[in-house]
Structures are given as C-alpha cells and as structure tokens.
C-alpha cells in the first residue's frame, strides 16, 4: 500500500494531504486510509501555506486524533472487466441487447480512470467447439467465443483503452476445459492462480467489477472472489454490467444487498 507522509488537518471534518505526484499520485474518488479510518478523495485544494497542491478528504468518522505528519495510505484497487467479447455484444452469437453501448461507456470510464487502478484485468471465454455449455453438446447456450474466432475477441475500443490507460494490464482466459462450465474466472485453475497472485503482489484491497453478463459471469465471479479472496472488498459497477433479461437479474442484486464486502455502485 502506498504511504504519503505529510497530512494537514484543515477545519472540521476535512484533511488536506500533500501529494507527491511524481512518486505516488492520488486522484479524486480514490479511497485512502489514515490509521484505521477510510476516506474518499473529493477534491483538490491549493493552500497558501502549501507550496504544492493538496487533496481534500471527506471522512465518515471523527478526525480529532489525526495529527500533522500522520501517515496516509492509498487503498490499492483492481479493475476487473468480465467477458467484454464480441459474441456477448449486440449482434453476437449470445448477444445482450444494449451491451455494445454499455461497453462504449465503460471505455470512456477506463479512458478517464484507468490509471487510478494498480492493476486492470480483462477476462475472456475461450472455448473449443466441443465445450459442454453448447447446445449441441448438451448445454444450454449456442456456440460462442470459439478460440481464435472473431466472436472471442475483446471489444476493440475497450481493449485498446485498457492497453493505453492501465498501469498494469493482463487478459485471463476461462472456459478452456471442455468438460466444465466456468462462468467465473476463479473456476479456471490457472487463471484463478494468476489473479490471486497479482492481488497479493500489488496489495489489492478493493476490486471494481464490470462486464457481461451481470446475472451470470459477473455474479459468479464476485461470489467466488468473496470466498477465495477473504481480505478483499468488491464493488460492482452496475452501469457497466448489462444483464441477460431472463428473470434472474434481481437474484444477484439481492445477494449483494445481503452480503458484506460487496456493494453495488453506479460506476
């Protein structure tokens, strides 16, 4: 976790943090900690007694015990984008209506906030034609995201934005075992091990989740993540998670509302 050394108490309920932008930048809407108190960065301020810019933090707790030169820590975050692939977009083999426009909006979000995340991960279905989830093989879905096909490609504008605007970016695949359904990236042993390794390496404390589809692969990934990463919090970016309209959409929302360490935000 990144540590900023200089903290100034300025008025009731606000703190200004001197930010060394060359070493460890902190941005508006970042989550940060002072001791055990968590704050959100809500603005930037230039003060006459500070030679460089500061950040205004709005705490949810009283801050009387915070003193000058207390250390402040930046909460390290991961952006996890689930299966933003051509076959899941409008017109795809298993397309979700409106998904292409929603992924365009997600691309804008990455353009603006990609560097706020220590790591960014995209997951991708990568099936063989013999995968068990396909109707011809006894499953419930039409063939989709066949390995090396156009439909398996991650939506190009989003992919290019992730490459350009991420501090660290990697693609992890799932659905590679013909005999197992893997809605969740954590169901793929190799990819799960890699993701867990990255979370530990970068000291990730929060994972923001977006992608397709809200009530299937996003839902399963979050549920497995809560179990396999017990020290990590999850935030589901609802505006960037199109759902399959089959009547199960509210099931995941109800789960989120009744579960600790996960919340639903607009994004």
Description of the structure:
By secondary structure, the chain is α/β, with parallel strands linked by helices. The chain has 2 domains: 2-74, Thrombin, subunit H; 77-265, 3-Layer(aba) Sandwich (Rossmann fold). It contains 5 helices and 13 strands. The chain has helices at residues 99-113, 156-165, 189-201, 214-228, 249-257, and strands at residues 2-4, 7-9, 15-18, 31-34, 37-45, 54-59, 72-74, 77-82, 119-125, 169-174, 206-211, 233-237, 262-265. The strands form 2 sheets. Strands 1-7-4-5-6-3-2 form a 7-stranded antiparallel sheet, with no helix packed on it. Strand 11, helix 4 (214-228) and strand 12 (233-237) form a beta-alpha-beta unit. Helix 1 (99-113) runs parallel beside helix 2 (156-165). Residues 1-5, 8-13, 18-23, 45-53 and 60-69 have low confidence and may be disordered.
Features:
267 residues, alpha/beta, Thrombin, subunit H, Rossmann fold, 2 domains, seven-stranded antiparallel β-sheet, six-stranded parallel β-sheet, 5 helices, 13 strands, 23% helix, globular, disordered N terminus
